[in-house]
## 1
Amino acid sequence: MFAEFSGPFVFGLSAFTLIFAAANIVNIGKLIANDHAPLWAAIGVFLWSLPGIVVLVIPMALLLGVLLAMQRLSGESEITAMKAGGITVTRIVTPLLAVGFVMSIVTYVLQEAVVPFADDQQNYLVNEVIDRSSAFNRDLSVSAPLPGGGRQVTFANAYDKATNALLNVTMIQYNRSNEPTQIVFADSAQFEADRWTLHAASTYRFNADGTIFSEPRVPVTQVDIGERPSELVKRVSHDDPEQMSQAEISDVMQSGQLTETELRKYWESYQEKFARPFACFVFTLIAIPFGIRVARGGGSTSLGFGLAVAIVFTYYIVMTFFSYIGSAALWLAPLAAWMPNLIFTYFGAVRLHKAARA
């Protein structure tokens, strides 16, 4: 079963990866021609984009591989021969189901450990090598709620990764009535424990009676806000939890600086990132009875490929629908994230049961 499956799986992995990578291959020429990017940097952008593509296409490749393998085994009566020898259909397909489960784990590890790092490297090449600008090609501007009420707007124009500090910082604090209470100008802001340490800072406080209190420039002062500079960078540079790992999403959610809408967005992505890799097992399960049926109807490789695309398309339509539902409330997100897998697992299990009894 492994030998029969491995060939079609490698074919599917290569074919789907090339399809999804085609646009990125075209971008290499555009980066060189339009942005005058170095060839090595353009190639690097393409190579660092591959891990994300591979994670996306592994479930599709498993679906196609299992479809084609079962189609050939059934079409050449090998399934019938094994059943005649006393081997049940469930026992026959158990190795394929095991592969689907193992690949779910592998995909999850790639998604969490490899893809975020690859995305960071790709962003570095695009921003600092090709565009010759940092992640702050525009000034950082982030609004975050304060622990005691009100909010703080933070501006900066650079981020020093070596010291984990924001550079050329302006912080404006507002009270619950949205009235400014304090403005701080600093050369840099570094996060330590649960406070910001500001260096070379000047502070202006606005009192309730309309007077302004100005503090002279001090070498070091502290401000309580809570959110780390690295979290601010992620939110400003690509405020997209899809480009983060679950650990990074968890850090941002625990910072307490997200609005209710942002919290729902991040929580939904957190749940989907856990459920999505198990599409590998779901696609394997649903492909087995479909492969047997296609073979009985006189199927071909092209028909198997078309059926794989149709199943994937249907799955992602269902996933998009439930993703929209999951964004409505925090308690809905876990159920909505797993619902496509549950629906297709039930459908595949029913069809496999019918195929086993036939």
## 2
Amino acid sequence: MDLFKKCLDFETARLARADGSYPYFIPLDRNEGTEVVYQGKRIIMCGSNNYLGLTTHPKVREAAIEAIRKYGTSCTGSRFLNGNMTIIEELEEQLADWVGMDDALVFSTGMQVNLGTISSLVGRGDFVILDKEDHASIVDGAFLSGGKIERFRHNDIEHLERVLKSLPENAGKLLVVDGLFSMEGDIAPLPEIIPLCERYDVRLMVDDAHAMGVLGGGKGTAAHFGLTDKVDLIMSTFSKSFASIGGFVAGNFDVIDYIKHHARSLIFSASIPPANTATVLAALQVMREEPQMFADLEANGDFMREGFKNLGFDTGHSVTPIIPIIIGDNELTFKMWRDLFEAGVFVNPVISPATAPGRQLLRTSYMATHQKSQLEKVLEIFEKVGKANGLI
């Protein structure tokens, strides 16, 4: 049998492109933060992870440009050998200080952080425990580790305790949860999770890819709850609030040093480019100098959540600027996406397996830099499209 037969027979994307309902890999002409340009048309962006709007901040842009002038475009090698730079180590010091940990380690992508961290710490005979809504990078890191995987129902503390109680006392155990879940905008209940970790001798890692810059004064989920000293590892990406690409993990010095020497995704990848590193440093500086942006982001999220609820939309369990519009049907989800896009609003359609069957949704997210007039326009368009499709 030809290995490529499944590729030749793959019709789903082809048919969706043909009827205009294909929602992925949209080639934007320009991305200006709260608005994008597609085929000459301006569209309000409500599907980005650019929560603080820093991709267009003058200080952040200038830092990236200046870094290229000073360092060039790439380090052309792994940090393990010839690709490490003082600017990267400076960033690690600042990130560790920002999240309140001893040390931090920078990777070239967020995906690599979870692959490398989990697979280097967890081995055969160990257990890795995951929330069923954890990000795919966490799941892949768990599979790559060779450890035994246990999963518990999303944010179900009783089920989590049953899982932990069933594990052998003498085995190594790592629990990994998203701090802020990226599809429905709800938060991991760390005040309930941490006592269980302490009771059953489990190490805790929090993926703050979407929480960093959003919760806890921008410092993440543990800071949001005042529990940073109770969390063992915090990771985050740079491709959301930090307006760049890459990621890091922070924790105890000895643990970070061990990961540094065992994470294959770090050792065998080229290091993060200087421009991306300088971007994150500048973003951190802006966060420190302009803390009002965190309040602006929260206010915009509250405004939109209340607006959607008043219109009759189901926003699930969201308590953050990530606000799902629960639809529950594949065809209607894609129809709503297309109608909204054509009317001038960019959102993300999410269907199974990215979300549970019956929870198909439109993922919307908001920025600190969205203007009230833009948000009011989005609600107006949602009302029109929602009524036209019988959703409200």
